[in-house]
Design goal:
By secondary structure, the chain is of the alpha+beta class. Helices cover about 20% and strands about 35% of the residues. The strands form 2 sheets. Strands 1-4-5-6 form a 4-stranded antiparallel beta sheet, with no helix packed on it. The chain has a two-stranded antiparallel ribbon with strand order 2-3. It is globular, with a radius of gyration of 22 Å.
């Protein structure tokens, strides 16, 4: 059996670990912004779906701030099909989603972070 001092030490250590773990869990991960470049004109939607409201657009050869990517509606355009959408930080301060079909790079617009 463990002595009283050992039990206290284990309990204190466990509490410290639990508190440290809670601190780690409480912090939400920040996505590193990635510069993305459009290769074609495309609509930016309020969500990752073609039926969502259009809130902005991207223009060919302009760069934008990509935050992360996620799967959404399938988009077929310019002979390319893709379900990946990139969350953009809009200049107006909001968030919008553009299909990766309209971005240069890989099938995720070169954005490494999944939302």
């Amino acid at each position: 059996m463990l002595g009283t001092k050992m039990k206290r030490a284990l309990a204190m250590g466990g509490a410290s670990l639990a508190l440290a773990g809670a601190g780690v869990m409480a912090a939400s991960p920040a996505f590193a912004a990635t510069t993305v470049v459009a290769w074609a004109h495309g609509n930016v939607h309020a969500g990752p779906a073609k039926g969502e409201r259009v809130v902005s657009y991207v223009n060919a050869n302009y760069s934008y701030t990509g935050l992360c990517w996620l799967e959404g509606d399938l988009v077929n355009d310019h002979g390319i099909s893709n379900r990946n959408w990139v969350r953009l930080q809009l200049n107006s301060g909001g968030i919008g989603y553009v299909s990766a079909v309209y971005l240069k790079g890989n099938d995720k617009g070169n954005v490494p972070n999944h939302c």
